[in-house]
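Protocol step 4 of 5: obtain the predicted structure for the target chain.
Materials: sequence only (see below). No template structures provided, no constraints applied. The aim of this step is simply to have a reference model before the mutagenesis design in step 5. Sequence pasted as it appears in the construct record:
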Amino acid sequence: MLNIPNALTSMRIVFIPVFIVCFYLPYEWAHFASACIFAGVAFTDWLDGYLARKLQQQTKFGAFLDPVADKLMVVSALTLITEHYAEPAITVAAIVMVGREILISALREWMAELGKRAHVKVSEVGKWKTMAQLMALTGLIWSEPGVIYGMALFLLYVAVILTLWSMCVYIKAAWPELMSKD
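Step 4 output (structure tokens):
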């Protein structure tokens, strides 16, 4: 069902190649423009959820597509900055974040098969992780040397800490099922 929240979520996916192509344009302003596009698209992550609740337009399709759009957007940005900077500090952060996403996606799918998906629903720590991650990625896509880069790198490592923390929260919630003999 296409409604405003689902259209915003779909737009996030459509704009992934746009911010990537913009990043590689041979113009002085390309990285800044790419960061602005990414930030605008990242804002829709919050906006689509808010509108879905406010307008009572929550759908199963939206519940499926929203996390897919988020992960595609974040993994695309992490890949872009990993290639651009080619720095171990950024590469390690990207690997931790992508690894956590794979692990938690698998954990949620497995818990859903057991009928216990609610045990691993999105946590408050996960929301803070996403905010720090999106802000860090915006700054790193901008790739402005100096203070912007320093703040973005700091936020990236805040996001890594929150990534690991939220992963522990989800694993702790699923632990009794993981250790059961059935």
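Step 4 remarks: The chain has one domain: 4-178. The first helix runs from residue 4 to 23.
Proceed to step 5.
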